[in-house]
Design a protein that fits this description.
Blueprint: H1 2-21, H2 37-45, H3 51-79, H4 82-95, H5 97-106, H6 110-125, H7 134-139, H8 148-154, H9 173-184, H10 195-213, H11 219-235, H12 238-252, E1 283-285, H13 295-300, E2 330-334, E3 343-348, E4 364-368, H14 378-389, E5 394-396, H15 403-408, H16 419-437, E6 443-448, H17 450-464, E7 470-476, H18 482-494, H19 501-519, H20 533-536, H21 549-574, H22 589-596, H23 601-615, H24 622-629, H25 635-640, E8 644-649, H26 657-667, E9 671-674, H27 686-695
Parallel strand pairs: 1-9, 4-5, 4-6, 6-7, 7-8, 8-9
Antiparallel strand pairs: 2-3, 3-5
Length: 703
């Protein structure tokens, strides 16, 4: 036994030495770039000098989640319905009360300590040993989610460096030590026969973990980033404070007899409906059920876009009996030779007709998402469901401006960003997909954002040579001038320049909390009938995030940067990129990501995209590249065709006044304008999805 212990220590020492041996090239901080993702992560999480060791330990956890927890969750979740799993999780949380009591007491969080004590005794008695969370449901007493790591942070103990151990939820030295204290004060630690509780927690954790790393180009990087931001939110106990605030707002709406009082004044982030422009040619919609805010904040409400069948009450998503729309998906693979990975796309077929029924011959719908969009992303699934419910078979693909789309989809391993080339690659890819499905018939093309721009260029090319038989295309929120759109997004990041590290730490919890509440809203479609926004403000506060416009612009910019960084990382992983000083060594990637995060779209294009195009015989300078990338070069085609339709928001953050005038004059009656929504921030409206179906002429049979 001693021999094995010595061997384990030697292996651990070897991992630590390997982690520290890499040649890291740490670039000096440039405050003029703003708070780009890796800089934020390193500021909040601390350094990662043991990156090789941490990645090794994370790989153990990731393997267990992927190859053990996932199959177990599918089997266990098919036996135990979701309410039973949630009830068991509530029992586990109830038994963890001693740690929360001590840590709130040690943090001088007196109200939190009292609330945790009340929760424990109420849920243990009225809640039948914690099976039911009566304290929250009946009495609005919320958990602080406190732990020893939070208490140590309040005592002034810093996080230390990143430090990951198998089966430990801490990701730094402080929280890892706190985790062992949490276990020591957990009642379950001392109870016999707790294997069922352990199994249940295993499944619950897997359900939370899987969406985080899905589609990630580097799971360790994604997990560290997301956990760091989430942990900062926990350290501030933001959710606890927010829920109490919402309870106070709801209570303020009722008098002593329970009657609804007049709606309180709207928060300052709200906006009045935009008046219809006098010279508008397109159709104008001012949806009364939509709570208007500033454009960038409305843009972030895109996270509310989910399929209607997205939250099965009875069963977990991937279990045998689940009814989530995701279960209709067929991930198909196309073999492209031994030296290349198989191409993947999603296929949503209609169920076979019942005996005696005749299936309508509706066109196949092909969906192209925007930058960093995936074939199984939430917005993609929502659009696919919209057409699937109308009777169409649906195909969705990864964006060519997403690392997986570049490697395994239409991208053909080429740098994306030159729209004519990206559109041609998509055309070729669609031809391959239709051949794989043995489909011969009409097609409807639907794209949004960057995908919409590609769809417009595909339609222009199809006019010259019809290869796909596309009968109609719907463009959702396309930027008319892609260069201008990229500049606006880059400017959002620059607005973080004045923020100090303390300012950042103060803003992060609220920002993350608002987004988490949006993500957990589970309201996929806002019905047309709900047309009283003033009365919904407090009741549906999770739909209306309340952070500043600058913060929202910053987050939108961060999302763009992440897409560019992932593309550069994957290409650098395959073949070293010129000018990139850090390598892709297992223990060196934090420094590499810090270097890649400094690339905005212009620098990316000039450093990598334009040289690669020149090697292919396409000579462009940056102004020409940007000019060719938007919709302006297609003005004549878009003005005369009757096959391309536009759905846009008048306050889209990627449009300027000239762009709006150009699009409206070009599309005329084939354009539908919503007065609000930012960029893709109102797709969860039933009204928007109705317009989408009508613009695509969904349900029409073609011979």
């Amino acid at each position: 036994m001693k021999k094995y212990g010595t061997l384990a220590c030697l292996l651990l020492l070897l991992c630590l030495l390997t982690a520290c041996a890499s040649d890291r090239i740490c670039l000096e901080q440039d405050p003029s770039l703003g708070w780009y993702p890796t800089r934020v992560e390193n500021e909040l999480a601390g350094p990662d000098p043991l990156e090789g060791f941490n990645r090794t330990m994370f790989t153990v956890n990731d393997f267990c989640m992927e190859w053990i927890a996932d199959p177990v969750a599918r089997g266990y979740g098919s036996i135990m319905p979701r309410p039973a799993i949630n009830a068991m999780e509530r029992v586990c949380l109830n038994l963890e009360w001693p740690a929360r009591f001590i840590t709130t007491l040690g943090s001088a969080e007196w109200k939190g300590c009292w609330d945790e004590t009340c929760r424990f005794f109420i849920n243990t008695t009225l809640g039948v040993a914690g099976i039911f969370d009566v304290a929250e449901w009946w009495f609005d007493i919320h958990s602080t989610e406190s732990d020893f790591g939070q208490m140590f942070a309040i005592w002034g103990i810093g996080p230390g460096c990143t430090f990951i151990l198998p089966f430990c939820k801490g990701t730094n030295v402080r929280d890892t030590v706190g985790f062992f204290f949490d276990c020591a004060f957990d009642i379950k630690t001392y109870l016999p026969y707790t294997y069922l509780a352990t199994l249940n927690r295993f499944v619950v954790n897997q359900q939370a973990y899987a969406p985080i790393v899905k589609g990630s180009s580097d799971r360790y990087k994604t997990f560290r980033s997301m956990h760091t931001i989430y942990r900062e939110n926990q350290l501030a106990r933001w959710k606890y404070a927010k829920l109490n605030q919402l309870d106070d707002e709801k209570e303020a709406m009722l008098d002593e007899e329970g009657n609804v009082l007049p709606a309180p004044p709207l928060p300052v982030t709200f906006a009045k409906p935009c008046p219809k422009p006098d010279d508008l040619k397109g159709n104008w919609i001012a949806a009364p059920e939509y709570d208007r805010q500033t454009p960038a904040i409305e843009t972030l409400r895109a996270v509310l876009t989910t399929p209607i069948r997205s939250n099965d009450y009875w069963w977990l998503p991937h279990t045998l009996w689940g009814t989530n729309f995701y279960r209709t998906i067929d991930i198909r693979k196309i073999d492209r030779g031994e030296d290349r990975e198989k191409a993947r796309y999603a296929y949503f077929p209609q169920p076979e007709p019942e005996e005696g029924e005749v299936r309508k011959k509706l066109p196949l719908v092909i969906i192209i998402p925007g930058i960093d969009g995936t074939y199984d992303g939430s917005s993609t699934l929502a659009v696919a469901e919209t057409f699937h419910n109308a009777g169409h078979d649906v195909i969705s693909v990864d964006s060519v401006f997403f690392w997986r789309g570049m490697e395994q989809g239409a991208g053909n391993d080429a740098f994306p960003g030159y729209v004519p080339a990206d559109a041609q690659r998509l055309r070729n890819y669609f031809t391959t997909i239709l051949s794989d499905l043995n489909y011969k018939g009409p097609v409807i093309l639907v794209g949004w954002s960057y995908g919409a721009v590609c769809a417009a260029h595909i339609m222009a090319a199809e006019e010259q040579k019809n290869t796909l038989d596309i009968r109609r295309a719907v463009l959702i929120n396309p930027p008319a001038d892609l260069g201008c759109a990229m500049q606006k997004l880059d400017a959002g990041l620059k607005k973080s320049v004045p923020l100090s590290a303390d300012d950042l730490k103060e803003k992060i919890p609220g920002t993350v909390g608002e987004l988490l509440l949006l993500n957990s809203a589970h309201i996929p479609v806002m019905p047309v009938e709900q047309n009283d926004p003033a009365g919904r403000v407090a009741q549906m506060a999770f739909l209306v995030p309340r952070f500043e416009e600058k913060t929202a612009e910053y987050i939108a910019s961060i999302m763009l940067r992440s897409g560019i960084r992932d593309i550069l990382f994957r290409r650098h992983l395959k073949s070293p990129l010129p000018g990139i000083r850090n390598n892709t060594d297992w223990s060196n990637r934090n420094s590499l990501y810090d270097e890649l995060d400094r690339f905005d779209f212009e620098r990316y294009a000039k450093t990598f995209l334009l040289p690669e195009l020149e090697q292919q015989g396409i000579r462009k300078d940056f102004p020409t590249l940007v000019r060719d990338a938007g919709l302006y070069p297609l003005k004549d085609f878009l003005g005369r065709t009757d096959k391309v339709y536009l759905i846009h928001n008048w306050n889209d953050i990627l449009l300027n006044e000239q762009d709006k005038h150009f699009l409206d004059q070009t599309f005329g009656k084939r354009a539908t304008w919503f007065d609000a929504g930012g960029h893709m921030g109102n797709l969860y409206l039933e009204r928007f999805r109705n317009v989408l179906r009508e613009s695509a002429d969904a349900g029409k049979e073609y011979k």
